[in-house]
Amino acid sequence: ENSLLRQVSSLLRRLPAIESEKFQDDFLMEYNDTLLITYLAMFTNC
Amino acid sequence: SSDAIFYYDETAQAKFQQDRPWVNDPHYFRRVKISALALLKMVVHARSGGTIEVMGLMQGKTDGDAIIVMDAFALPVEGTETRVNAQADAYEYMVDYSQTNKQAGRLENVVGWYHSHPGYGCWLSGIDVSTQMLNQQFQEPFLAVVIDPTRTVSAGKVEVGAFRTYPEGYKPPDEPVSEYQTIPLNKIEDFGVHCKQYYALDITYFKSSLDCHLLDLLWNKYWVNTLSSSPLLGNGDYVAGQISDLADKLEQAENQLAHSRFGLLIAPPQRKKEEESQLAKITRDSAKITVEQVHGLMSQVIKDILFNSIRR
Amino acid sequence: MDIEQKQAELIDHFVKKASALKGTILDPVIIEATSHPSLFAFSEILAVPSVVELGGTENSGYLDVLRLFAHGTWTDYKNNAGCLPELIPDQVLKLKQLTVLTLAETNKVLPYDQLMQELDVTNVRELEDFLINECMYAGIVRGKLDQLRRCFEVQFAAGRDLRPGQLGNMLQTLSNWLATSENLLVSIQEKIKWADTMSELDKKHRKDVEDRVEDVKKSLS
After folding, report:
1. Given B71, B90, B123, B287, which residue has the most CB atoms within 10 angstroms?
2. Nearest CB to A9: which of C11, C155, C170?
C-alpha cells in the first residue's frame, strides 16, 4: 500500500529526533545535575 | 446512569436549602464530586495565572453530604493572597454572570469558590479562612477549593484540596492525619496557625459519556504535546525554590539542634521527638524533590533511547 | 498523515481517469497530475497498466516525466532536459517542491546555499518565500528557518514515493526501532523488579534494626 509506505517513510525520516553535539552536551549536563541532586538528597537522608 | 448526576432537581435543591442540615453539624458535608469539565477549567485557569494566585467560582448542587461541582468560571481578579477581600472586585461580575446563567437555562447555583496556590500546596491561609468563614455565614452551602498548578506539573497529578471551615469558636474533635504535604518556610506559620479551623473533604471526580468521548479525542490530539513536555525543563524555577526552601529548613533545624545541645541531657522527651519529626519532615521533603527529579530524568532518558538512538 | 488524507481522493481520481484512457490521450492526464497543487504522490498512477504501456512508445517521454516526479529532483530534470518534454511552470514548481522533500530525506538541516543551488534560486528572500509559501503552507514540510545560520531545520517532511531498494532500509530501521523498544521495556521491567526487591530488603532491614533496638532497651531496663 503506497500511501502507508509513504507515511512510514516520512515517520522514519524523523529519526533520530535530535542529533547534535549541543543537545548531547545539554542532555548530559541535565543528567549529571539530576544525579547530583539525588546524591545530595542521600546526604540529607543520612 | 453516569449522566444521571447532571440532572438538576430544582424542587429537591430548594427543599435542601430550606432544611439546612449543615447548621447543626459543622462536619455535615464530607464529600465533593467535581466534574471533569470543572476540574479542567479550574486547572487551566490556575496554570494560566503562572505564579500569581487566581480565583473563580464553582456552580453545582448538593446531594446529601456531598457537594457536586458541575462547572466553574474564572473571576477577573488576581493576587488573592495579597488582599483581604479580593472577591470584592468581582461582585458585579459574579452577579451578572449568575443572572445570565439563569437566563440561559443554567439552573445550578454557585456552591463554592476556588483559587490557586502556585507552588505552596493545597491549604487555607488566614485570609482564605476568613473569606470562607464569611461565605459560610451568608452563602451556604459553600465550598473552598485550592489548586496548586505548579505542583500539579511536577507531581504529574492534579494537586487539589477541598475545604470547609468550622464556625467561630468551634473546637473540632481530633482529626485523622491528613496526607502530608511540603509547606515552604515562609508560609509555614500561616499554615500552622489556621490549620485547625477547617477540614478537608474527600474529592472524587465524574464525567459524562460525552466527556469521555471528547477527552479521548483530546488525548489523541495532545499526546504528542504531553510526550514532548518535561517537568525538569518547565518547572526549573519551582525546583530551585524547593531546594532553597529545603536548605533554609535544614539550617533552622541545625540551629535548633545546636541551641539544645546541652538541653538534650535534661530536655523532656517531647522536645526530642519534635526535633526528630522536623528532621523526618525535611528528609521526606528532600525525598519528594528527588523522586520528582528522578521521574523527570527517567522520562527524558526513555525518550532519548526511543527516539534518538535509532540510526537510519 | 494529513497530506496522505488530502491526496487520497486525488490519487483515486487520477488512477480512474488513467485506467479509462490509453496511448496519447494519457499525456494531458499526466500533465494535469504532475501540475496539480495538492498531489505529491505518483506511484499509484505509475502502476496503472495503461500508463505502464506507454513505455517504449512515442509517448514514453511522459512516462519518464511521471517517473521523474515520483522519484527525481529538479537537478535530474535539468541533466536530462533533452530527453524529456518541456515542463509547464506548475510542473516546475511541483518538481522543486518534491526536490525539497528529497533533500529533507537525507538531512534534517538544509543549508540555504545547498537549497538555492538545487532549486535554482538566486537570493535568500526568494528561497524563504518559496519554502514558506509553496512548501510550508502546502503542508508538505514543517520546520524552522534559521536566518542567522542560513539553514532550514526540517521537523517534518511528507513522504515521497519509494524508490526501488528503499524498502529494505525502511524495514531494517523499523526492526531496529522495534528491538530497541523491546529492550527498553525489558530494562524498565527489570528496574521495577529491582526497586521492589530493594524496597522489601529495606523494610526488612528497618524491622531488624527496630527489633534489635527494642531488645537492647529491654535488656538495659
Report:
1. B123
2. C170
pLDDT in tens, C71-86: 999 999 999 999 899 9
Q: How long, in residues, is chain C?
A: 221
CB contact B310 to C (< 8 Å) = yes
Degrees to nearest 5, angle at CA B105 with B101 and B107: 75
- The set of chains that have 3 or more CB pairs under 8 A with B is A, C
Dihedral Cα C29, C31, C37, C38, nearest 10 deg: 40
- By Cβ distance, the residue of A13, A30, A37 closest to B290 is A37
Give backbone dihedrals phi and psi of B112, rounded to 5 degrees, phi first. Answer: 175, 180
The reported pTM is 0.76
Which residues does residue B35 pair with via DSSP β-bridges, in sequence order? B206
- Tell me what pLDDT residue B306 has: 92
Question: Is B290 close to A15, i.e. CB distance below 8 A?
Answer: no
| B220 reaches C (C-beta below 8 A) | no
Half-sphere exposure of C13 (CA within 13 A, CB side): 12
- Alpha helices, H only, chain B: 10-19, 36-48, 91-103, 126-138, 149-155, 188-194, 209-228, 231-234, 236-259, 263-266, 269-308
